[in-house]
Every structure is written in C-alpha cells, then in structure tokens.
Amino acid sequence: MTRLVHHLALLADWEAALPAGGYRVSTRGRSLEEEGFIHACFADQVDGVARRYYADVTEPMVLLAVDVRLVGCDVRLEVPAGASDAFPHLYGPIPVGAVVGVTPFAVAPAEGSWARLHHAHLFASDLDATVGWWRRWFGARVVADEVLLGSRNVMVAVGDGRLNLYDQAPPLDGAGRSAVHHLGVQVRDVAALEVSLRAAGVPLRRGAREGEGFRYLMVEAPDGVLVEVFEAVDGSMAPASVPWFSWA
C-alpha cells in the first residue's frame, strides 16, 4: 500500500479535530464509532468519491493527506459492498500529526460542460501575415485582438475551432520546439482542478496565477504537451474578449 492515503473532510470537522489531537469522522454524517473505521482513498480515487458522496456539499471542504505510517492503527485495503475497487480503511482515529497535507477542495462537476478544449496557442513572427493566411485559406474570423500580459494576441475562429495567435517569433532552435506553444483548456474552476491534480501527484510548473481577465495553470500532459488550464473571471476582462471566453 502506498504511504499516503486521502480523506475528504468538512473544514469544520477538521478544525474541531485540531484541539482534540485526533480526527474521528468516518465519512459524511457518520462518526468513527458509528462506522467502525474511517473511509479513505488513493489519489486516483479522490474525484470519484467526491462526486459520488459530496457533490451537493456547500460547506467548505479540505482534502487530508494522511501518512499511514503515522496513524498508529490498523489500515486495511477492503472492497466496500457494491464496489469493484478496494479502498483503504483506517480502524482508529487519525492523529493530527499523521496529516501531512491539508488542501482546500471543491468538487468538479461530473458533466462534460465543466471543461472544454478551447484553443491552440501559436507563436507568430509576423502576426498580421499569419492572421491573413488563416483568413485566406480557411476563412478564419477574428474574434478578439487584444494586448494580454504585455503582448498582442489575436484570437481567431476557424469553423468551430479556435487559435490564439501570439505576437512573438517561435523558438525554432532545433531543440524540438515549434510554433505550437500549448493547448488551452477552459474550465469552470481552476482552483478545484489544481487541488485534484496535486492530490494525484501530477507535477505542476507553478500554482495558479492571475492574468488579465482570467486565472490559469500550466500543466504538462503526456509526451511533453504543454496545457494551459484557464478560467475566465467575469467582469474583469476587456469587452472585446468576452465572446472569446463565453461558454455560450
């Protein structure tokens, strides 16, 4: 069994455990004494547990990372009734000192509308010529032409696909890089996704950052594909950019 397991907790329950020195909530609405053990899960099971049992929770939540070497109780890998996967169960309270990570958590919606592939981001050594090329040969339509983070960005729609053309020459230095910088994926909640990525051990270049009208996170997908995960922030972006980020 891996050294770390995870447990979703209401923030109020975790804060109540701190002065007591131990956490005794088994799962939502049930205590260790009622259930006989504390439910936990592995990193790749966190999202499924959250959507199945906590999707309607409106109270603040945290994800606890627990070092099983420090709990001082029996930890068993068991398959719950009606399930196909095994989950770790802790047969005793979780000492506060065994919790090595506490991260705010929000449940990502299960439906597909919570994320979408939004655009490919391309460098352009001659931005106007590049826009003209996409217009001439593929009927590209300019959606927005804005200065973002100090550089001109022209956002074009090609059919139902999108390109973000960036006013900077591509780094064609023979190191395997090209004019394609990253893929942009728009999500409803960057903070919630960051928590899930970290819980699963996905390496991030840095935490979420604030842009001009959006917040974003850079993550590396398989084969070195760079992905910009971003969330539009209502009321803080240039008016011309609103249609570009609209989910409609």
In short:
This protein has helices at residues 11-20, 32-35, 46-53, 127-138, 190-199, 242-245; strands at 4-10, 22-23, 25-27, 30-31, 38-39, 61-67, 74-78, 87-91, 94-95, 99-105, 115-124, 141-148, 151-158, 161-167, 180-187, 209-210, 214-220, 226-232. The protein is α+β, with helices and mostly antiparallel strands and 248 residues long. It has 2 domains: 4-105, ADP-ribosylation fold (Alpha-Beta Barrel), CATH 3.20.170; 112-245, 2,3-Dihydroxybiphenyl 1,2-Dioxygenase, domain 1.
Structural class: alpha+beta
Tally of individual helices: 6
The string of secondary-structure elements, in order, is EHEEEHEHEEEEEEHEEEEHEEEH
**Strand content bin:** 35-45%
CATH topology of the largest domain: 2,3-Dihydroxybiphenyl 1,2-Dioxygenase, domain 1
> What general outline do the C-alpha atoms trace?
elongated
Ranges where pLDDT stays below 50 over 5 or more residues in a row are none
Largest sheet: 8 strands, mixed
Number of strands: 18
CATH-assigned homologous superfamily of the largest domain: 2,3-Dihydroxybiphenyl 1,2-Dioxygenase, domain 1
Question: Termini, distance in Å?
Answer: 45 Å
Q: Strand order, main sheet: write it out.
A: 12-13-14-11-15-18-17-16
Give the oligomeric state of the chains in this entry, treating copies of one chain as homo and distinct chains as hetero.
Answer: single chain
CATH class type of the largest domain: Alpha Beta
Mean pLDDT: 86
In angstroms, what is the radius of gyration? 23 Å
Total discrete domains: 2
